[in-house]
Design a protein that fits this description.
It is built from two helices and eight strands; from the N terminus they run E-E-E-E-E-E-E-H-E-H. It is mainly beta and 161 residues long. The termini are far apart.
């Protein structure tokens, strides 16, 4: 379970309503050399009640059969979707039909709003990538090489916040 997690990895997406994300398994280093899945994965919906739901299936990479079940988690601010990190999942693109777009308008939802999510994976083991390249499993930037976005996360809140 999560009590065995020794590492967390996080990243963010900012997607328009009509954008999805392909079916995939979360895997260390994109599955190069060997497949290593996290213990658990989570999607935290930060902004935007637009876009399609997250679909989590019951299929694992070692399964010989295709998924037989699936669960949908629709975007809502501050909702969190947690699931077994070995499961196949995706983001379904948002509906584009005129009737649905009209429904969004009636509910006061701007379809141009973006779906902002933070994904978090919990790992028992994870090879941390070193060096200046961008990519997965990197250390949080600190010191003189800190990026402006990292400085903002490390700073004290201002009265503007």
């Amino acid at each position: 379970g999560l009590k065995d997690a020794e590492y967390i990895e996080w990243w963010a997406h900012c997607r328009p309503h009509e954008s999805g994300h392909q079916l995939h398994f979360d895997s260390a280093d994109e599955g190069k050399n060997k497949v290593l899945n996290p213990i658990s994965s989570a999607v935290l919906y930060i902004q935007g009640e637009v876009g399609g739901p997250t679909l989590v299936t019951d299929q694992r990479i070692s399964d010989r059969k295709l998924a037989s079940k699936g669960w949908l988690c629709f975007p809502a601010v501050n909702r969190i979707c947690m699931f077994d990190g070995t499961l196949l999942h995706m983001v379904v693109p948002g509906r584009q039909d005129t009737q649905f777009i009209e429904t969004l308008k009636q509910e006061g939802i701007d379809r141009n709003e973006r779906r902002v999510t933070v994904m978090i994976s919990f790992w028992k083991e994870l090879h941390i990538q070193d060096g200046p390249m961008q990519g997965a499993a990197r250390r949080f930037p600190t010191g003189r090489d800190t990026h402006s976005w990292a400085e903002k996360l490390n700073s004290e809140p201002t009265s503007e916040a």
